[in-house]
Design brief:
Blueprint (H helix, E strand, L loop, with lengths): L2 H5 L1 H6 L12 H10 L1 H9 L4 H43 L16 E3 L6 E3 H4 L5 H7 L5 H4 L18 E3 L6 E3 H6 L4 E4 L4 E4 L28 E2 L8 E2 L1 H6 L3 E3 L10 E3 L10 H24 L5 H27 L17 H13 L4 H5 L19 H73 L4 H17 L17 E3 L6 E3 L21 H6 L3 H4 L16 H8 L1
Antiparallel strand pairs: 1-2, 3-4, 5-6, 7-8, 9-10, 11-12
Pfam families: PHD, zf-HC5HC2H_2
GO molecular function, one term: zinc ion binding
Protein name: PHD-type domain-containing protein
Amino acid sequence: MSKPTDSSIFGKMTSRAAGKRQIKPTAVLFATLNENHPSSDEEDEDFEGPKEEEGSGDSGDSSEESNSDEEESEEDEEEEEKDQEHGEVEEEKSIICGVCVNQKKSDENFLNCRKCGIHVHKSCYKGLQSSEDVTSEGLWFCEPCQYGYLDPPFCEFCPSRFGAFKKSDLPDRWAHTICALFTHGIVWVDDDSLSGVSWENLENSNFGRRVCSACSDKIEARFGISSRCESGMCKEYMHVTCAQKLGLLVDESGDSEAAVPRYFFCKKHTNLDNLKSFQRKFEGWEKAEGKRITAHRRRKALEASEDEQRVKMREMLEELFEDENTKQKGGVHGGEKVKQARLLNSSSEFFDRFETKAEDSGLSKKEFRDPFYDIKLTNSSHVPIGFSKEYLDFMHVRDTQIIPEEEEKLRKVRELLAETKAKQEKKSTSKALSDKFRANEELIESKQEAIERLHKILAELGDLDLRQSTERSTSGTVAKKAKESYSCVVCKKATEQHKQTQCDQCHNSYHIGCLSPPLTRLPKRNNFGWICHECNESSGDESEVMVPMETSRSSRNRRPPARLSAFLSQ
């Protein structure tokens, strides 16, 4: 191949290194390449073959090219599989930096912690150790091991516990080196050695404000600080370690002209070509980290010389913090910095401790986590949460005044609700009774109408006049009402009305026992009248008493009683 072909892009496409897939050029590409070669036109003009041979040659060439393409594709696939397997083996055997996970190309030597076994690039982790101590004795300790940590500390910016950590300027607070480098607003006590992570320029309200879109757990998504995608108006937020796991971090710290040396793009705004290989590498590194942490717990204690080196490195770091505190006290400040409050559910350390305590108390993990899903992202109270005097006063007022007032309001509302409910029940009961009474009245009216119809039918069947029966009933009622009671003239008593008889002449009433002589029964008045003994004595003619009444027919004469005849004979 000629030099111009090699220098052009078409030449590079058609001539690749061994083991790489060759790109078959098209007819247009061949024409373009032939134009660049002046000798090719002369050769084509000089050579003239028969048309039949040319046709047969083209068909043969096409079949040979197709077969060769199939063979080359199969060989390329086999070579790619071998390269991938070989690469995975190399990745397992190779040393991976605990900060950049070998995403940053560096030819520097690795620093290996003597105690926990983590590997880091010297340019990624840095530190206060002198190069002479590291090269001569080979003893180096990461900052958590300098302070005697057996388990990895908790990062203040993300939920992960893998990787290399740095101590902050606050006691017992740690952060990933990669999180401190890529989180905007983070500063260092010493920039040259990357020692002393400080977030004094950040508001504590930033912790837990944004939800990480890469975290599967909603509670862990609010741990720490989620950084924003650097692409324009994108609203995707992620933890730095979550973005690193997906291969989205961009480090341009070597470029002095870069406005933002370290940032990341989300999946929508990044090139996804080389991410899968890095993600596989990161997964392998996470597995190795888990094994390293487990092995670190089982390691033996350090020797005396090694422990002296560890203590020496820790003292150097503490001296740095003391010098920084001295500078701050000697400088001019606007006053003591106000302590800021922070939500407990934004800290992975405290959340893990409270969760462990809840499990020890018999509470399940689900029961402990469920209330945290409903916590608001912002604090609605005008007093910031914290152990300050203002917040304690607010809590005292809330417990002594606000809560009792609200409870009293709640009690009144409940009483009003109970009264309203009772009135409603009473109203519904009265309505039901009135409906039932109305239904009974309608039933009675219908039955009365039915009875009247039945009576009318029976009267018609019996050939009875309804009006006559009504008159008879009314006359009988009047007669009964007109009947009066009589009193005996002799005993002056109105008792035993059924044993009294009335004189037809004087109309006085006598008991049959009070008569002289007394009677055993009432006198019959079918065809005769009856007078008392007084009327009988006053009358001279006895025959007048026994005068028969005018009748249509006479009955046989009856003999008077023996007592009466004896009385008359006297």
